[in-house]
Design brief:
2 domains; alpha+beta; Gyrase A, domain 2
Amino acid sequence: MKMRMIRLTSNFLTDALKGKTMATISNLPEDIELLDVKYDLSSNQLTAIIRSNSFEDISESFPIPELNVSTTTNQPVSHRAQSMPKLEPTPMKKAPQIQQNKQISKIENEFSPDQRKLISFKVEGEYVIVKPIQFLKAEWEDINDVVRSLGGKWVKGDIISYWAIPLQQNYQPPC
């Protein structure tokens, strides 16, 4: 497992996107791949899972280690801000997304609050993808039981493993 976790504040990201400050993370290798991003509203932190062949290989039985990043901040350069493309809002299909969000929240409610802190939810195609945020020890079995009761299954991946729960049009939580 050649993955690391990076924690950033949301202000760091928004300032970089707005061009207020040109903030860079100086100790990242050139060959990084972004695997997953999660925003924690309560702590106002952005957590990113990255992979690089430059990282030391660690057994999958260990949790993903956190990479301590060192940042450098420069003042914005005016020609950079002018040369950046303007982002145009794209029309989104709201009705299916709202319906999917309702189904995700129904599925989330099947898990205990402690379990929800350990996993993330995302819709991909016809499935709700449930990924562990950190290494699960004793909690894995309980979460797996809930997923299986919802018709889902564990999908073993090369880099990241996850649960896939079929997204059903008429989802009814078990009584």
